Batch of 3 targets.
Target 1
Amino acid sequence: MWNVFLSLVKKDFQMLIAGKFLIVALGSLLLYTIFINFGYTNFMQAELYHVYLYDPAGTQVGYSDQILCVDSSEELNQALSADTNGVGIDTSSGEPLVVFYAGSEKADNHRKDYALSLLRSGKRYEAESVGSNTPEMKQRREITCELLFIELIAVGFLGIASVLFKEKQMGVIRVHAILPLKKRLFILSKITVFLLSDLVFAALLTMFNIELSGAISILPAILVQTALLSMIMALTGFACAMLLRDFKQFSLAYLVIAIFAATPVFLTANTSVKMTWVRYHPFYKLYNELKNAYFGTMHINIVYYIGVFLALGILYFFVQAVFYKEMGKEG
């Protein structure tokens, strides 16, 4: 049985190569690496916010020399109009009033805290370093995690479908119905091939875009989360490929999954759009665990792993049932 399984895996790898799947994966890896190293990190380099102080009564003492003083409220408004990322502090009413052009809630809170920290620059207000990541490394870990999450959903789902639809057209699945071998080996070989491909992709993407010493320490946890998400998407893609007649119908199913599975997670994690219900979204939990792996903050969540393995078991038996139906046999 082991030899049969290896022969199936070898055949599936040959199908991937013939279908140019590996070329697409390597192209994605190259594109993501170029984007992270030459686009995203440069674009996301942020200068410190300029802080402008209007203090007509001279009530503020001991503030940081990084604060820019203005002589009137009109000058303060002009400065903020020209520097929309800047923060103004107006003490004309007797109390420091922070003024700025609003952006996202999270960024606005950072701007306000930063401005007040410069205003009250005494020892007890000094900022402390949190964590060991530089701003650039934090950005690299975040964007690498997000791209890997998107790639796993896309490749795991679309990749296995493209192979299975081609095999359905060639009559390969019908042939397996009359061969004297365990039908589950066909399913396991497909899952294994895409799992190995995703693990290699995740390892290379991580090592290419995160400092090697840091990448090696977090890679085991990343590969565990990659494996879980990869198997979930591969099994889901397998089931859809068996149930749907052609790739056009499958494309519609993929659009539904992209909208309801990936989009809420991406918006909640990367924009000011907050959805309170997303905490119950299964893919949001998968994304958070993958992100924890990238930042080295993994902890054993028994409920999470029980839920994931339960979902994998249900998906596997469902896939086995629809596969037997496709072959014209009873499970």
Target 2
Amino acid sequence: MKAQEKKASFLKRTIDLALKGNANSTTCVTVFQPKAPHGLKKFSKMNNDK
């Protein structure tokens, strides 16, 4: 077996193990963005009267 083939085989096994380990895990992210106070509207350059 050539060195290139050994490297490819090792890489494939490593990726397979990593995928099996991460297949059942999930990530959950919650982002909270509070409303800006009405007093900050005077600093806005845009007309957002909605």
Target 3
Amino acid sequence: MNTLIRNTLPILAGVLAVFGIVYSGCHESRAKNEAGTAVELRKAIQLYEQQILEAETVHLANVKQYGEKMGMTSGSDVMPKITAQQELLKKHKEIAEAHKMELLHTDTTNSDKNKELIKAIDANYQVLLNDLPAIEESLMGDYKTNVPK
């Protein structure tokens, strides 16, 4: 009986060591994958915010150009267009803030949840890309101005 235990104990220890190494390796790669989706989530939010900032910069440059050339008047036809562009920018800024809050309050180790959030951000990003022509549209054109500069 003692010889049986002495002979099988080293084999059993070796098998358990191999299983432990394999188990450790599998869980380490899983943790890296989950951390990877959290990084992707942060990058998606940063890309969305960057695009909003670029659109806002173009919009402000257009408003400045219009103001320098035509003057801002309360009776201008361009004022509703500027307001509409600002509303689109405001909407997308609020969406970006909501995504940032989700990132702060969510469990970023859950890769399935991260992937869902990335899909939602990508969908909002596509909406922003569709709204960009309206936001970045030049204000120079045939607009009525009732009051001169």
